[in-house]
Fold each of these.
Amino acid sequence: MNQPKPPEKGYQARVRTNTIQLAQWSGAWVASCALMAFGPKFLWNKALAFTLLAIGSNVAAGVGVILANKNYLAELDELQRKVQLNAMAVTLGVGLIASVPLSVMNSYHLIPFKVDISHLVMLMSLTFVVSVVYGSRRYR
Amino acid sequence: MKNRLKVLRAERNWTQAQLAEALDVSRQTINAIETGKFDPSLPLAFRAARLFGLHIEELFHDEDRSNLETEIKKDTYV
């Protein structure tokens, strides 16, 4: 059987490498978020220098996540990139549209709990996951 | 846009995974192109044509244009 010749490093291998890097940076960012949130109270008794260091590490990890995500997107093929970009567009829209009414409802105590930025992050994360799953199934 | 990707792949006994590897895309993308759910970009279409040793228009053709040509032929014969 005449087999087609694959490129040097295959698509799957490159995507796997970039996915692992993205997961590692995301993990580091989540860990730095936890350190920034709980460290001042439980680890270093609100010492300013350590708090600033934790904030700095969180920002650095955040930049790492952005660059890793950019690399991840750049290496995806055109269909996978389309799915991801569609999901990002929906997520951005939902985040923007949901944030204003949530803020107003929170101001007038129309929601039984206090709305926090973390709720918006959770909503956007959920929207992104649902959008990616929907997009992937659409082209299956 | 219609294409002959599935037929040409079958003629060579290649799997979708093998074709995907050769074109440096995912297997899902090959499947989406074969089933007409996704139209490839021009660079990918050229890569596919080069792989099969064909001109791009032998691999992909415009569905609307085909329908138009069929209608013109019908009108000519009437």
Amino acid sequence: MRLEMAIPLWLWRTGAFIISVLLGLLVSSLVLVISNTPIYATYRAIYTGSLGSLDALQGSLVYAEPIAFTGLAAAIAFRAQVWNIGGEGQMAIGAFGAALIALNTNLPDPYMLLAVVVCGAFCAGFWGLLPAALKVWLGVNEVLSTLMLNYVAILWIQFLVFGPWRDPSGGWPYSSYFPTQADLPPIAGSLDIGVIAAPCLAIMLAFLLRFTRWGFEVSVVGHSHASARYAAISVSRVVIQVMVCSGAVAGLAGIQQVCGTAGRLYVLTPGYGYLGILVSWLAGHNPVLVLVMAVFYGILLQGGSALRIAQIEPSLVSVIQAAVILFALAGLTLAARYRPRQVSNMKARQ
Amino acid sequence: MELPGKDEIVLRSITKRFGEIVANDRVDLTIKRGQILALLGENGAGKSTLMNILSGVYTPDSGTIDFEGERVRFRSPWDAVRRGIGMVHQHFQLVEPFSVLENVVLAATETSLLIQKRAAAARIETVGRAHGLQVDPRALVWQLTVGERQKVEILKLLYRGAELLLLDEPTSMLTPSEAGELYKALRRLADVGKYVVLITHKLHEVVAAADRVTVLRQGRVVANLARSELVSADLGALMVGSALPQEGHRQAVESSEQAVALRVEEAHVDGYRGAAGLKGASLEIQHREILGIAGVAGNGQVELAECIVGLRRLRRGRLWLDGSEITRTDSLARIRAGLRFVPEDRLGMGLIGQLDTIDNIMLRDYREKPFRNGLLLNRRVARERAKKIVEEYDVRAPSVETPVRSLSGGNQQKILIGRELLPEPRVLVVAQPTRGLDIAATRFVHDRLFALRDSGAAVLLLSEDLDEVLHLSDRVAVLYDGQVRGVWRRKEADRSKIGAVMGGHFLDAA
């Protein structure tokens, strides 16, 4: 007991995380053994492919970037116990908003990018507003409405790139390339400005949630609606604000995808919106930790693609990823539940 | 000591500690078949701990339990259930949207996958008739009165063949006449050979119902008395101990100004799911006055409090605060006008359990000046306030950063009341201010309420505890079925008259 009390919280959590990840790898090893795959070579390939070189690290960060934005988006909503499952759709609509400006205007250099980002975030915020309005005025459960709006958004993009916005010169369902003014400024290699924007946004959100009156309102609504009413906080207003913010931030992921990575609009279906939800849970909805977890997930994804290149059975890659994530989530949940308490033996009498 | 017999349950030398606190200290208890035993004691005397040990929720640190001559050890509540021990909790453990039948079957011990509804209903009716506890098995629980719900709780135990019935404060939610019926039902159960234990802190209940009484104080047995030895005055002294003198009502300082602080005129409020709501309740409170509202739970108390502070809309009627009408203002405007509120739902509404004392101190005033700092919050000031309240109210907490849910109920209530009194309210609405608190904390809260009144504020007290209402109030009113029935000045207030009105028997005078 004494010994447990000496462990600070951050160490307890970090330790739990590392041990869980190792356990996940251990379980994956069993699968590798069963399927006659060399264990050491596999893990070595993951390491060199995702962390072993500067190029490899860059690849991991490219994966981490959109997940960081969708993760932050999820964290904002989940803080207020608003279950926004619509990151995927809000991301797609963000990409649509960006393309709307990029394909139809030819603004000069700094204004183009500004307009692209503002329009993209605005559209995605609107996509978050819809389920919020349905929830507040008609009592529609946001889990269902946000989930279903994902399909609406994806189908809308599909319609555009197969139809009116299809690049006439190419056979694939892509739009034409955006003008170069709409490209996100590159940082190094394949990395763009998003690598800097995401941490800035995370720190801003952390500050907003912890130190501002608005952040306090979000926290109160997230803990108890009855207490919020008692404190004369409008739950409806907070739910709407939170959903609009969450949508807009998820939209940034879409903007980053079309303006940074691809340079044109296409059907975004890599599931980053859902990964954001996962990452937010791993991070306990803490914006700064969301970044850490996004990078962690980026490493897993990049390691996975390295394995595919190394001709290892792709289903095994999924098994390893799933095992590691499952163990990490379970480990962190257990660590939160059974953390050593300072007052554990001061319980009430009755 | 005689050998444990076939028809008794004997607890010997039961000790249970929680950290530093000894909840039960070498407690001996004998329960006899066919008798009603009352376990009497104040809050925190160790009654509930003892009963939780007997029903398998806690395991004792030491001591033994002999069940009809056989040594038993309960490792889980399930072990106790299989032995035929059943408990009726003070707050009913019923699924409200379910029918009586479903609730009873849910608690049953047989493990069959299918529910034979017709057979079960027939059995419930048979058991009910045999013990004078008739309830329609098809009725939905939320439609039942409190007294009927209690019958369902007892039926649950009898249906699964319980031999020992433990009832924790069974009359706290009942009207006097319903309580009378309950005593009769318990007597019938004892007569057919059940063991019955009544856990209570009400002396008249012991006198009315028990064959024997065991008095607990600070975890120890201080007396074992048979019915013939019962004198309620002595019981009171035994229960409270001689060290604590009876505290008295503190008379308000007479003052010439007689300004009405709060006026409620013909308030109509919708009730929630069959609850009464308000049906034209009117009242007036002056400054320097405590108006106590007595009444059985569910007669509109919650609706009255919440409509005054602006958490519930009035369907009809009007409200005035200090002479200006507030009927249409929102709850924020009322907070700012100095109308404060201590709700009965301490952790669900008044405080947020997961947050620490600092954040809870800001809960209703985070928009106002010392806490407001532009768009930001001034947590430094909030921390100072929190420390001040912790010190002034003697809150026992590891630090102001501890989540308040890990504090005891008394300490939570002190933080809640401290926060609401800090801005010097004009009018305070306070509901169930001492529910679940021990004597010291109760007295502390009462002192604060008297002090607040003496500083010129008006206090509207809503409490299910008639003793508390009588003790604190300058005037007493009864809320029955959504209306204020009868208002008495303190001197004219009389227990039996008030009790009658609480039960719906209106006197012409009232």
Amino acid sequence: MKKIGYLCTYVLEEILHAAGFLPVRIMPDTTPPTRADAHLQSYTCCFARGCLDLALAGKLNDLAGVVFTHTCDTMQGLADIWREVFPHLFVETIVTPVTLNSPHAQQYLVAELRRFTAALEKHFDVRVTDEALRASIRVYNARRRALADFYARRAEFSAVEWFDVMNRALTSPPEAVGGQWSAVSTQQSKIENQKSKIGVVLLGATIDEPTLPQILDDLGARIVADDFCNGARYFDTLVAEDGDPIEALAARELARAACPCKHRALDNRIERVLKLVKEHRADGVIFYHKKFCDPHAWDYPPLAAALDREKIPHLLLEVEQVAPPGQTRVRVEAFLEMLSA
Amino acid sequence: MSERRYKKLKTAPQLKTLLERHYLAAKYFHPGKPIAWVTSGAPVEIVRALDLFPVYPENYGALCGARGASAELCQVAEARGYSPDLCAYARSSVGMMNDAKRAPLGGLPRPDVLITCGNICGTVLKWYEAAARHYGAPLFILDTPFIHADDGEPTPHAIAYVAAQLEEMIAFLEKQTRRKLAREKLFNVLMLSIEAVNLWREVREMCRARPSPLNAPDLFLNMAPIVTLRGTKECVEFYRALKDEVAERVAHKVSALPEEKYRLLWDNIAIWHHLYKFYNHFVDYGACFVVDTYTGGWAMRMNEQGDPIEGLARTYTQVFLNQSLQVRARDMIDLVQRFDVDGFVMHSNRSCKPYSVGQYDIRRIVTEQTGKPGLIIEADHCDPRAYDDAAIRARIQMFMEGLQARG
């Protein structure tokens, strides 16, 4: 099966899958992104630079295309750079609406998804039928349910296992996920007395490498909830399995938990974060932000103020490509000590 | 601030009066007119036709930069948790909201409504969300889908989407301000906008003359009315006067610089905090910026015919910052050729990612297709702390020596 890469969970995997491709999430590795420096300024985030660097290093040569959606200013520029650098590839942006609450967003997005689907069909000379779309919707809904189940049982897993399952899920065939996490669950014996551990909520764009989960495991803390693009936001909300499939996909796109690049209501994300903390009885919140990520940096002051009002302790970690283990450990340890005091 | 070292415009006092009057009226005298904060790329014609008073936080940000107030205001925002990597206009604005004492003119007036349009960047969404929280004022977001298509044309569904939102925006403003939009008034404002925009485009085009009658800082200062007063009679009158003066310069071969030896193109927002100092480094070499990509953002071609709402939707969706790097490179090649420049200078602007990301590839494309060299300088449009004059000077020297060597 040919693969098509994507960089954001607003990309609708179902359409790619229905066209006969395996959609895989591109995640940067831990090699310093030096090749990307020829195209991206040092003040762009490590995620953008890291992903482009993989492509420039030839590590994404198995991809037949890369699909973007409209999110932040850096991704917008990166999409154009990508098609400039790889003119032979299928590089497309689904220009998703910013205002999810606009009464016109659904109609616009449906038309935009049809345009994208037509471009995909034309480039690869394939047909995306409603029947295939419905089948793909069922497959991805099953994966979302499996991941939601896994999350419901996350107390049984370590943070590193959580990181592992999520990142493997997003790069594997969707049919495989159930098997994956049951394999993980056999290793769970090492996690003991989970209920007594300190619970934290993690917030951020993506989590690309396991330094922080490892530190949390070492220090005996649990991730009780998260709001990552490659975390809980990925499987939030199912696609309706009846009716017009493109309409159903668009409706899910507008309904699911919003990334800070999007707008639903002024304090929508603040309310959602407070709800996560309360529902999961978290002891504190860790902002795991990438340096130069504007949308998350903008959300930090109002979120921090809302957490302060609710007397919920929080910690801001701003990372480049790899969280510095020593410094991160010291800061997380001090934060956890404060939470347990 | 350093002094300018090139010819001053006779219309400069008129410009100064016009802007001072605008800011004073915004702050102290706008009887019966609710204040609307709007982004520079918002369809202000609707706001004006409803008889609201639009103010422009971005223009105010430039003013903070030019008056040397931005570093302190940015620090106020940073102390409140706003990252120093965010746009310095926006940080200055947040600083102003929280500590107006430190802000020029005592800060902007409180908004009664906020209108943000995403055609220039994603920052304006978050910035206006912050302002809406701070002031408790209602916010309207106009979503203008970005155009990745190589022909620069918006999709029909994007135009329909923006047009539908414009109707929604009218209804929102009517409800919030308890007034009713008269469509003929919108038409009149639109005509005034079109007239001013056309005059501004003509002024810019006159710089194709050798020697150029204007240097980039002239364009930067004289763009203020097209941003903040678009759709008014005063704006049209000002650009008529400016056009007459510039035409006279061209007729008499009056040069902006004492001697124009090199012609350059400027890309990205001005470096407001070192406006004269920075451009004087080029004046030293007799290099005049005869054209730029930035102030051309308000020289767009506006539709005069057809449905005004659809025309506005098209105009404001197609602005250059809502276009791909491929389209921007093509436009820059056009400017390089039509203005017959020897090279181009790109401001890699830490505050403005949508304008700056892609510049490295644009430079390569433009040089490949025109043979003209490009220099990239890293700075910030509004935060003087990100400006290293010695390093910048050294880079300018190398670039200009390269141009000299080409003969």
